[in-house]
Amino acid sequence: MSADPSAIAQIVKIIRRDLKLGPEIALAPETVLFGGELDLDSLDALLLVQSIEKDFGIKVPTDAIGPEIFATLGTLAKFVEQQTSEQASA
Question: In terms of pTM, does the model score above 0.70?
Answer without folding.
Answer: yes
